[in-house]
């Protein structure tokens, strides 16, 4: 009985220690509030995405965790330890840089072994561990090459191996897939995801690509002007955007003004309505078809209902109206998602 | 893409080019030839005979050795000072933002743009105002003013080409400031420092004007040569020393060129 309670207590303590927590963290550069009173909790083992347009503060948040920036005010904890004033080289956090930042004068093996070398690990041991890390990122036997001899995708894997060999508690990835072409990007998405599951390390990655954030992350924080507008699972962010900004930025969702929504039979509030939730049916709101575009598994139909432009997704196999045809639109009232913000 | 690629230049152009090259380099060749002449009082053309005796004479003259050793000392110490100060200044200007950065950059470069005579006079009056006695160290200070510039220019260019995320990556991987300097910064700027250092050494080694104003009784090698030309005795000894000076300054510059030639891609590939 007592033992059980003890175990329960321990579980509670473990559950309380988050991987990274921000409380009221701000980072100002002169008059610019790059990060403005951000509260954020990232759990251990989470694959967390910071999503936002450039200049929204997401990269500064990442640099605050890495230790390259110090908060102007507020408090940061990494696994329960205060992070302020701790230099980057004393944090159990590693970063995969956007430009990979491989050391050009060292070969791949020495690049990967660098973190171990500065910690004083013997040459044989660090080379063995670096070889292992290279195998983990599917680049075995590349150790003798120089960074200049590798492709962009390979360099990124090396950067990944160089971070992972240090067994960080948190891995930070700054726009990890930004410089790769589409096919490689999709492949790396899968690999990063399975690598994260395999290692159980907390991954935090910064991206401006909503598709990337939604498909890879367990949880997404949407940044705008130095603040987190919404944080939640990809489903929550996509289906229930809290504000117009989130709806605009995250999805191809229809964002409808309060006046238009009232005319369409809803409440006088900002609303979002997903294109796939709208059906072309016999009854409902009348609209004129402006254009159609075939996407393979579906066809996107752009319609004009009064003053409101909407986009409707017609699944493959359903009849697609001609341009300039008049159609009627219907949707379930429960599919309309009302958002915060002034009417 | 030029349409005349592969075609031969016309003879007037060839002649003009050859004339230009000859005008630049024949006088230097004459210096070499006169080092072997048998006529010691005047430079007579054609030389009446050839001998290597002046090399032995030069070898046995203590004043040559004194001047040579002083020059080597001055150039080495001035280069060492320039390497430290030039690198630090370059790091500050290229890596950080601070008030007056552009002004500092200009002030560092200014000494090489100033005529040597202005630098010389300025330093001389400053030394006498501060009642600093003229010595090897005043010469070194004088040379330092322009040696710092060449090191600074080389280092600042390299710093600007080196991606700043390399330093952050090093810190991120657990290296402290010293380790980052030792393992990442220094290897990346080494060839630039080598080139800058060699150039600084060569500039200091054949400097005359600033040395004239900042030196006391002792003579560096170029000053000694200037004094020797006035004396109509053992003139070819001056030429022998000139040959040595040409080689001593030319070889490091050539080496610096070869060392930095292939580093462009290396320095940029971290981007």
Automatic annotation (TrEMBL), chain A:
The lineage of its organism: Bacteria, Pseudomonadati, Pseudomonadota, Alphaproteobacteria, Hyphomicrobiales. Keywords: ATP-binding, Nucleotide-binding, Transport. Residues 20-250 form the ABC transporter domain. PROSITE patterns: ABC_TRANSPORTER_1 (PS00211), ABC_TRANSPORTER_2 (PS50893). One of its GO terms (biological process) is putrescine transport. It comes from the Bacteria. The keyword Nucleotide-binding applies. Pfam families: ABC_tran (PF00005), TOBE_2 (PF08402). GO terms for cellular component: ATP-binding cassette (ABC) transporter complex. InterPro entries: AAA+_ATPase, ABC_SmlMolc_Importer, ABC_transporter-like_ATP-bd, ABC_transporter-like_CS, Mo/tungstate-bd_C_term_dom, P-loop_NTPase, Transp-assoc_OB_typ2. This is Putative spermidine/putrescine transport system ATP-binding protein. GO terms for molecular function: ATP binding; ATP hydrolysis activity; transmembrane transporter activity. Belongs to the ABC transporter superfamily.
From TrEMBL, chain B:
PROSITE patterns: ABC_TM1. CDD domains: TM_PBP2. Residues 68-256 form the ABC transmembrane type-1 domain. The chain crosses the membrane at residues 12-36, 67-91, 103-123, 135-159, 180-202, 238-259. Gene3D superfamilies: MetI-like (1.10.3720.10). One of its GO terms (cellular component) is plasma membrane. Its main location: membrane. InterPro entries: Bact_Polyamine_Transport (IPR051789), MetI-like (IPR000515), MetI-like_sf (IPR035906). The keyword Lipoprotein does not apply. It is a multi-pass membrane protein. This is Putative spermidine/putrescine transport system permease protein.
